[in-house]
Amino acid sequence: MSNGTIPRWRSMRADRTRERTVVLNQLLLGVVSLLSALIAFSMGAIAVVEALIGGMLLVAVITGVALAVPWNRIHALWSALLPISDIFAIAILRESNPSAGFSLLWIFPAMWIAGAFGLLGLVVVNILANGVYWLTVALDPAQSLTPVVILIPMMIIAVSTTSYVAAKRASAQRSLLDAQARLLARAVERSRRQEDMVTEVLDAVDFGVIRLGASGEESVRNEAHARMQRMIATGGGEQAAYAEDGLTELSVEETPLARARRGETFDGDLVWYGRPGKGRRALSATSRALENATGERVGGIFVSRDVTAEVMALRAREDLVASVSHELRTPLTAILGYLELVLDAGDLSPSSRRGLEVAERNASRLLDIIADLLAVSVDHHGGVQLSFTPEYVKLDEIIRASIEAIIPRAMERQITLEDAGVEAVTAYVDPLRIRQVVDNVIGNAVKYNVDQGRVEVGVTADVDHAWIVVRDYGTGISAEELPRLFERFFRADAVRNTTTHGSGLGLSISRDIVRAHGGEITVQSELGGGSTFLIRLPLFEKGRRS
Question: Cα 511 vs. chain centroid, distance in angstroms?
């Protein structure tokens, strides 16, 4: 036996549909034939008892063969012998009394063959059954041609045709269902492969991923999350969680995962696990909402990443920057002091004075850079925040004072400072810190402007907020670099290639100051078309309004 034959035989043994069809059809014919014979005999309608007994014996033998033979293991055509044999058995039964109605039994083998063997079966069974019928009629000299005699073959033809059409339709539906079942099986297999692939990918990454349901339950989590949970766990459960400053302890409901379960969304929130000291871990957590086609929330994605090494490296850099800045500031302050003393003296030659003024300007610029470095270091070092003392102050006076201080630098390049948009506005802010922000933004507008350019400054207010606008017509910022503008130490490529100096810290510090006030600073810019900075600040103390 070839290898290609084995699957076919297995399929035949597994598919018992044909065997059930043969048995049910033959049992139905046998039962109806038996009941018909008993009724006719009890009513005394049997003329030739031997024909009745002979026909019933043949039907019984055929039924026994139907039950004994494993029809699913042999060719389907062999099963056609049963209804053909039934046709002759019914002919014998009819001979017991042609008017007893046994002719109607030919409907059963006609339906069987027409339904099981298609159009060829329909033609053959009608020829055979009607041929045998008309033969029995012709051999009976007492049989006269009546409407009933003509109606019986017509019924056989009609019923067998109906059986053929129904079987054809059922076969088409079965083929359609089989095709749909195959498509569904392929879709299930494809879905299973995709699920396995997603699982493999999620388990391969080094950050934790959790899929949350609409009510906050976890439906999917990867291996990296389990590893991080083991890493931050203690004998009694998860370690204590602390905010980004590393000192403020968070309650269970304030942890990132608990917030994500409640449906909150956030990006890159830093949380420390473990008490201050060695062995604590820093995790960066992000939560995103998932929505269906109608915009309804159906769950969320929670992503966590171990950033301990990165945070510690940043802190080490900040410690180094702070240490170096402190060491440099003291001698630099002394240098500036002595330079001022020398410049105050009146017995300097013009060339010496110019040289000392250059030295003073560069020393002042270096001191400003060191001040920025120290501010960044202090603000991001272990939770020690910059001090703020907010009060109700006039923003227009702060802005005009800043413009007045920057005018000498602007005049060197013939840059015009316009303050026509400055309105009288009072806000609840720290005047020193906001002056630092305004100086930085207006100073940048002058620094990165073109010669003979223009800077427009304005301030206005709505119901709750003050709005400071600084617009320049300078070099502008490219769309690729704009998202990084407020990053610490970031300087655009176009600026690096010029003689314009800067530390890349001013805007980062300004944004921190504005956000500490409960406001925001944004920028719109186009390369070669200038930039517009918009600063939003609160008008009133938090929780109060006048």
Answer: 33
Of 56, 67, 141, the C-alpha closest to 96 is 56
Fill in the amino acid letter for 532.
T
Residue 142: both structure tokens together:
């007492």
Poorest-confidence range of 90-104, 193-207, 341-355, 426-440?
341-355
**270 CB burial (10 A radius; 0-12, 13-18, 19+):** middle
d(CA 515, CA 385): 12
Tell me the C-alpha distance between 103 and 43, whole Å.
Answer: 18
| Helices marked H in 205-263 | 223-232, 256-261
CB-CB contact of 58 with 88 (8 Å): yes
Question: In the structure encoding, which two tokens stand for residue 125, read together?
Answer: 């069974």
Q: How far apart are CA 207 and CA 210, in angstroms?
A: 10
Residue 272 β-bridge partners: 242, 282
The candidate with the shortest Cα–Cα distance to 112, out of 159, 65, 151, 78, is: 159
Q: Which residues, other chains included, contact 127 with Cβ-Cβ below 8 Å and sequence gap of 6+?
A: none
Chain centroid, CA 348 distance in Å = 74
Question: Taking a C-beta distance cutoff of 8 angstroms, is the pair 414, 449 a contact?
Answer: no
Closest C-alpha to 106, from 60, 65, 158 = 158
Q: Which of 224, 290, 223, 236 is nearest to 260 (CA)?
A: 290
Write the DSSP symbol of residue 489: T
Q: How far apart are CA 403 and CA 239, in angstroms?
A: 52
Q: What is the pLDDT of residue 503?
A: 61
The span from the CA of 98 to the CA of 104, in Å, is 11
Average pLDDT over residues 121-138: 88
Cα distances (Å, whole numbers) of residue 541 to 386, 394, 395, 538 = 19, 14, 15, 7
In the chain, the amino acid numbered 436 is: Q
CB burial of residue 169 (10 Å; 0-12, 13-18, 19+): exposed
Q: Which two tokens stand for residue 517?
A: 């006030």
β 520-525/531-538 pair status: antiparallel
**pLDDT tens sequence across 296-317:** 888 899 998 888 888 888 777 7
| Residue 347 CB neighbour total at 10 angstroms | 5
pLDDT at 11 over 50: no
Which tens digit of pLDDT belongs to each residue from 417-447?
999 899 999 999 999 889 989 988 998 899 8
Q: Which helix (H) or strand (E) holds 90?
A: helix 81-96
Residues 502/508/511/517 CA torsion (nearest 10 deg):
-110
Three-class DSSP labels, 311-332: HHHHHHHHHHHHHHHHHHHHHH
CA angle (147 as vertex; 144, 150 as ends), nearest 5: 85
Segments in 214-271 forming alpha helices (H): 223-232, 256-261
